[in-house]
Amino acid sequence: MVEKSKKKLANGLIVGAGIGYAVVYPFHQSFTGGLLSSGLSAALVGGLADAFAITGLFRVPMKLNFLKRCYSTIRTEVIPRNREKFISTLVNMVQDDLLSKESLKQYLKKMESEDIAHFVEVVIKNNLNHVKLSPYIAVIRDFSLKNGYEEHVIRFIRNFFIIKERRV
C-alpha cells in the first residue's frame, strides 16, 4: 500500500500544477508565460493520466463505477481480475526462461571453475542432511574428469579427507 504521505505529495503536486497553470495561463502569449503554461499543463495532464492509469490497475479510479456499466470496453481492476493468470505466466517465465537448462548452461560457461566449485561446496554443505549426494557427486566427477579438472578433484578429495582425519 502506498504511504499516505506519498499519496498526499502526489495529489499536492497535481493540484499545484493545476493552480499554477490557472495563474500562468493569462500570460501564455509571452515567451516565458508560454513556457511556464506549457510545462504546467504537461505536468497536470501527465499527473492525472498517471494517477488514473495506476489506480485503474488495482481498482475503479475515482469511484467511477457508472463508467463500467456504460462502456464495457473500459478496463479497470486489471490486476485483481487477472491475478491467477499473472502468477501462472510469471511461474512459466521463471521455469522456461530463467531456469531452463540452456540458460543455466550459458550462465555456468561464464563462471570461473573456482566460482563453480565454491557454489557447489556451499550447496552441498547447506543440503548435506536433505539430499542423497551420490548421484550428483558421480555427475560432478564425470564432468570434472571430462573437462580436465582432475587436479582440482584430487586436491578437493585430499583436503576433505585431511580435514576429516584431523577431526577424528
From TrEMBL:
Signal sequence region: none
Record's GO cellular component terms: plasma membrane
Ranges annotated as spanning the membrane: 9-28, 40-60
Keyword ATP-binding: no
InterPro entries in the cross-refs: DUF445
Pfam assignment, any one: DUF445
Protein name: DUF445 domain-containing protein
Highest taxon above the source species: Bacteria
Lineage start: Bacteria, Bacillati, Bacillota, Bacilli, Bacillales
The species this protein was found in: Sporolactobacillus nakayamae
Protein keywords: Membrane, Transmembrane, Transmembrane helix
Keyword Transmembrane helix: yes
